[in-house]
Amino acid sequence: MSDHHHHHDHDHSELSDLELRVRALESLMVEKGYVDPAALDALIDTYETKVGPRNGAQVVAKAWADPAYKQWLLEDATAAIASLSFTGRQGEHMVAVENTDTTHNMVVCTLCSCYPWPVLGLPPTWYKAAPYRARAVMQPRAVLAEFGVSLPDGQEVRVWDSTAEIRYLVLPQQPEESKGLSEAELADWVTRDSMIGVGLAQRPQAEG
Amino acid sequence: MNGAHDLGGMHGFGAIAPDPNEPLFHAEWERRCFALTLAVGFTGQWNIDASRFAREQMPPAEYLSTSYYVHWLHGLEYLLLDRTMATPQEIASGAVELEPKPGARLLKAQDVNKVLLKGGPSERETAEAPRFQPGDRVRTININPATHTRLPRYARGKVGTVALLHGAHVFPDTNSLYQGENPQHLYTIRFDGRDLWGPDAEPDSCTMIDLWNEYLEPA
């Protein structure tokens, strides 16, 4: 329960109360005919098994491998991403922002938890929690340092606060040593955090 | 509203603490709460802006001391009551007392994929020309409505530069109150760190914020 670190004392009672409260609500919604229980399972299955950051990694790998696709992505990300069949809820209006030697982009939603679902899936807890939302806009370098990223002096850090329905995907810099690899190989260099802008693309970790 | 959700620039929350092995959901109730929120949202009795406003109305101390899907649960219960889709007794017991609200759409399992892939675009056609162009200097207005707004506190009364134009989008401040979509031009405004945070800004930093026409005036 990484999001309950501060509440060990009442973790158990809170969780069981919540289980009961949600179960009652689900049964009420089904009884009233507002919800098809099989639709709930389909929604969960979509985000647990089908939609996630591997989608975004395909977009980034293609942009690295194909300059024409990269140009399309930077000019019209919604269409370029839709061409790979990643569309819809919480990704209706996409903008891709490119990291370069002079600019590092990172994405936050200070007001809630806006995140590009079709390409990254559902956001991690830290992205939705108070420390990141509070600090990313005022102390981006300090936040990046906590993620192990230190930017050189003079490289601008540009924080995108997702206050509207535009969803931002960071196009991380391609590591030199990955140049020439195939799109499929490149996708393994693209981490979720690099597409939020709190990490860098990196050599794939050995499977453990 | 100036609620606990409007966190940008606050101090005291500590380290970010990412968990590299985090599961997508931490408990079964989170999984069901997530899916219920999406499925009941599909009934069409509210919009995304109203659902954000519902979560924001959690009392601040409660908002800050509970986890993310508790906010969602609070929001869903609030909306069901607000839209007269359920009574407090029903929510407490889970047993039906009130007839279902007529006109509620039902999301069927076989339509889930299609509905998610389609999404709900917020861009609208407009005949109105944009008031600003990239490079224009603008100042955000200073407002403190008790209702929903997407102009964060840290960005009120600040001067920035127009960076991107996004066409006209549904305006959350009215849509959240069911007072109409009021679509208007949406811009990304670039604010230099020093213009937001003064001498406490980090060097070479800026924040890009998506802001609607009504939030902006020429600077």
Radius of gyration from the alpha-carbon trace of chain B, in angstroms = 20 Å
| Total strands of chain B | 6
Global outline of chain B = globular
- The computed structural class of chain B is alpha+beta
Briefly characterize the structure:
By secondary structure, chain A is an alpha/beta fold.
Topology (elements, then pairings):
The complex is a heterodimer of chains A (208) and B (219).
Chain A: H1 11-31, H2 37-50, H3 53-65, H4 67-75, H5 77-82, E1 93-98, E2 103-108, H6 117-120, H7 125-128, H8 130-135, H9 140-146, E3 156-161, E4 166-171, H10 183-187, H11 192-196
Parallel strand pairs in A: 1-4, 2-3
Helix pairs in contact in A: 3-4
Chain B: H1 28-41, H2 48-56, H3 60-65, H4 68-82, H5 88-93, H6 112-118, E1 123-124, E2 137-140, E3 159-169, H7 172-175, E4 184-192, H8 193-197, E5 205-212, E6 216-218
Antiparallel strand pairs in B: 1-3, 2-3, 2-6, 3-4, 4-5
Helix pairs in contact in B: 1-4, 2-4
If you had to describe this structure to a student in words, what would you say it looks like?
Chain A is of the alpha/beta class. Chain A folds into 2 domains: 9-48, no CATH class; 52-196, Alpha-Beta Complex (Nitrile Hydratase, Chain A). Helix content of chain A is 45%, strand content 12%. Chain A is built from 11 helices and 4 strands. Chain A has helices spanning 11-31, 37-50, 53-65, 67-75, 77-82, 117-120, 125-128, 130-135, 140-146, 183-187, 192-196, and strands at residues 93-98, 103-108, 156-161, 166-171. In chain A, helix 3 packs across helix 4. Chain A is globular, with a radius of gyration of 19 Å. By secondary structure, chain B is an alpha+beta fold. Chain B has 2 domains: 28-118, Nitrile hydratase, beta subunit (Cyclin A, domain 1); 128-218, SH3 type barrels (Roll), CATH 2.30.30.50. Chain B is built from 8 helices and 6 strands; from the N terminus they run H-H-H-H-H-H-E-E-E-H-E-H-E-E. Chain B has helices spanning 28-41, 48-56, 60-65, 68-82, 88-93, 112-118, 172-175, 193-197, and strands at residues 123-124, 137-140, 159-169, 184-192, 205-212, 216-218. In chain B, strands 1, 2, 3, 4, 5 and 6 form a 6-stranded antiparallel β-sheet that branches. The model of chain B has no long low-confidence stretch (mean pLDDT 97). The interface between A and B is large, with 87 and 97 residues.
